[in-house]
Amino acid sequence: MLAILSILFKLSGVAFLCIAALGVIKLPDPFQRMHAATKAGTLGAGLVIIGSVIAHGALDATLMGMMTVIFLLLTVPVAGHLLGRAAYVSGARLTLTGDDALAGVLTRADKSLDKRSGWVSLAPKEQADTARDTSDRQPPTLRKRLKQQNELPMLPAIEAVRFAVIGGEVVHVAERACTIAQRTGASLSAYTIIDTHAIHAAADQAGLRRLIRERASDAISDLKSVTSQADAASTLHYDEGDPEHILRCETEPGRTLLVLPSHGWFHHQVEARLERTTWEPDGLLRLPGCHRGPVLFVADKPLPDTARTVVVRDCGEDHLAALVEWALLNKLWNATQLLHVADKELKESRLAEVADRFGCSYTRHPAPDSGCTIPSGIDGLRAVVLGRTPRPLRTRWYGSSWLNRIAPDMAGDVLIMER
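That's the Potassium:proton antiporter sequence above. Prediction below.
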């Protein structure tokens, strides 16, 4: 009889927990989701605990179970109240109709957090509202061109700038990301990641994790010095896992720019190869494939103001002209010359029209080969725009930097967007 009663309590608790999970997923605003998580969740957890106490029957199990239930009843309502207060103060949307009883009692933000940070809601109606808001924020010339027919497809204006915080490669990347965010009015996010694949491949995993965390901490200190001098507010994200998964972006291409160094990885340059192996962490060139949009690899050294030539390596990608126009529209570089490097059999593209619209001189040059190579010795090289990532996807290949596959002694930025 006690076994049946225990099972009934446990099944009832699991049912309430499932209802709580469904409410957290389906309910439209954080206040309703909070009720589902606190009320149904607490009831479900309490019933499961009571069922477990009945099944064990021992005195110590009974005392532990009752203390756990009392702890839930004392803490979950307080946590729910604090979460609801924080959601209200941050400007979370109220979907239920009626008067706002807290109006004038608590200070409330004018816009919700997702609108301030540029996130798009999953609700169809809210997606439409967000799309209208971002359309209003786009430059007039961009909105005008979007309405025209038979025109080159346009990428939207930048709304978010994300950049990697990698040990030894912080200052020039953070400065460039801050400059772009301030110039475009986009939100700014910094990502400090520890690649767990590098840790799992090491012989002393605990020791390597400690060393990498120390290097990551030093990188964050360098970041704070840059952002304080630039007077830029950025959101810092710290995580341990797969960088390709963490940095994956599914927004509309163009809305989010990912800024990366030209070298380095998220093991923060801690040497930890396994014995008798040549493997080392290296995934920088795989990130353009998982980030849906433009990826800017920043030059290691500052370039002179006279470097104002942007080279477009055209391998037949149909989105290159839109990418170049997007970069010039968002003023990634102060360019005065556009050099179009393409194979002879490729037809004329719209790059000449893009160059003319932004007041840049346009020159077409035959490509040295079928890869991503550009002619060497270009005067005033500022950046190279590519429609695909140079292969192989290794930053160093037989001791040579991946930038040398573009041009010998390549020193400018590289902007890449995969199809």
